Amino acid sequence: MKLATLRLDGSTRAVRLDGDRLVDLGAADLGELLSQDGWAERAAAADANTATTYPVEGADFAPVVPRPSKVVCVGLNYKNHIQEMGRDLPEYPTLFAKFADSLIGATDDISRPEETAEFDWEVELAVVIGAPVRRARGAAAEAAIAGFTVLNDITCRDWQFRTREWLQGKMWDSSTPVGPYLVTPDELPGGVRPELAVKLSVDGEVMQHDNTADLLFDPVALVEYISTVVRLSPGDIIATGTPGGVGHARDPKRYLTGGERVVTEVQGIGRLENVVTGTA
Questions:
Q1: With contact defined as beta carbons under 8 Å apart, do 202 and 120 qualify?
Q2: 20 to 30 A from 244, CA-CA: which of 27, 43, 156, 162?
Q3: Do 77 and 10 lie in a common domain?
Q4: Which residue range(s) make up the domain with 143?
């Protein structure tokens, strides 16, 4: 299934993609839907012939989960990105956080803060949690994965590297597109360990192109590791890291200055298309 959160008349609705229509699933958003027991069965059972539907064309997608209780991000998780940043392969996942106020929809404008001169892009496969878990292992970690979505971990590099902690470079308001769809593992090659092409372009020029098979720590391993530290709740998002090709590692370095159209794609899931605009 492909699921999403649709903006509609000042509110939102959880929907399922069905051809050229979006079928209303009886919940305000995917966060609410995922918190319900048997959410997958409920979503699959919604009848496009009797439920309210909306056209896909012109749909205004909210962040796939508008208000997750947590967004946990992983740095340095593709071998080529680790090498381009001049670092050793890590023994453990490198974790940092974002907040819900950072998230924007699939076609929303990315707000470039006036305080940064080093505004960078990062295509990522993101995991969406569908069941509460703590210290999950094996099958429990696999079962906790509701599906996957697309995320662009936009980063203020000059703020990121002010200190040894990355948080202040990563959590800027209205900067992180996520969506448009949550795709359940059964629709993806590799299932809960999907092997998918990821790509990001700026004004039509491809900057990043890789495959999630290159991840050092796969989605299941990340659920196991993160849930050891903190409970994961339905709707929580794990951004799995970015491959090589970021602007900061280029020679000469390249950054987003405003006006660019950034397209972020993951095979089988969808694409984000966002224009970089002024300060949030």
A1: no
A2: 162
A3: no
A4: 71-277
CA angle, 2 then 41 then 179, to 5° = 25
Q: Rounded CA gap, 134 and 18, in Å? A: 34
* Percentage of the residues of the chain whose pLDDT score is greater than 90: 92
Q: Is the peptide bond before 180 cis (omega within 30 degrees of 0)?
A: yes
Residue-wise pLDDT tens digits, 25-69: 999 999 999 999 999 999 999 999 999 999 999 999 999 999 999
3-state secondary structure of 222: helix
Q: Is residue 63 part of a domain?
A: no
Q: How far apart are CA 201 and CA 121, in angstroms?
A: 9
Same domain, 137 and 30: no
Q: How far is CA 95 from CA 17, 98, 115, 180, in A?
A: 32, 10, 24, 24
Mark whether 24 and 102 lie in a shared domain. Answer: no
Beta strand extents in 69-122 (DSSP E only)? 71-75, 94-98, 103-104, 110-111, 119-120
